[in-house]
Design goal:
With about 160 residues, the protein is an alpha+beta fold. The protein contains 2 helices and 6 strands. The protein has a 4-stranded antiparallel beta sheet with strand order 3-6-5-4. Strands 1-2 form a two-stranded antiparallel ribbon.
């Protein structure tokens, strides 16, 4: 177990507080909503699988110089023809202590590594909510947060070019 120095950084064997560290201080459900507007009719068996639309978003906010609140938002909507079978939304958060990393690494840590740590827990909550709603558990596939981050950066760059022109 690492020792904490007075500045809040993890001290290595030489007492050097600049050792990079990423610690999960807390995890929490900020918002959870499950709707099955057509129940109990929506629970009947069907000969083909429903369409499922999934949206993922990540937000990060500083709480202090070294602590950050990262929220992973997952929305899943299952529908069959025009009927909504269920709609589930989860905002799952984590408070992270991050120190010792170069500034240029902070955004990738906040938007790739932190949600990667939160995802398995959020995935289980979504699976439990859909199962408790009378449906088979929705087991979300792993998410490539690095690709999401690169896509967001590319979109932001394209938007800034449009505004400048």
């Amino acid at each position: 177990m690492a020792n904490e120095d007075a500045a809040g950084g993890a001290a290595n064997g030489n007492g050097n507080p600049s050792q990079p560290s990423l610690n999960v201080l807390a995890q929490y459900v900020k918002d959870l909503s499950f709707e099955s507007p057509g129940a109990p009719n929506s629970l009947r068996g069907r000969d083909k699988a429903p369409g499922i639309a999934i949206n993922v978003n990540v937000n990060a906010n500083p709480l202090s110089d070294k602590q950050f609140d990262v929220n992973l938002t997952l929305n899943a909507k299952a529908s069959f023809d025009q009927e909504v079978l269920f709609n589930v939304e989860l905002v799952y958060g984590g408070v992270f202590a991050i120190g010792g990393f170069p500034q240029e690494h902070m955004l990738p840590i906040l938007f790739i590594e932190c949600p990667r740590l939160l995802f398995p827990f959020a995935r289980q909550i979504i699976a439990d909510a859909t199962r408790n709603g009378g449906f088979p558990p929705l087991m979300l596939d792993p998410i490539d947060f690095a690709q999401m981050f690169q896509q967001k950066i590319a979109e932001d760059q394209a938007a800034s070019k449009v505004q400048v022109s």
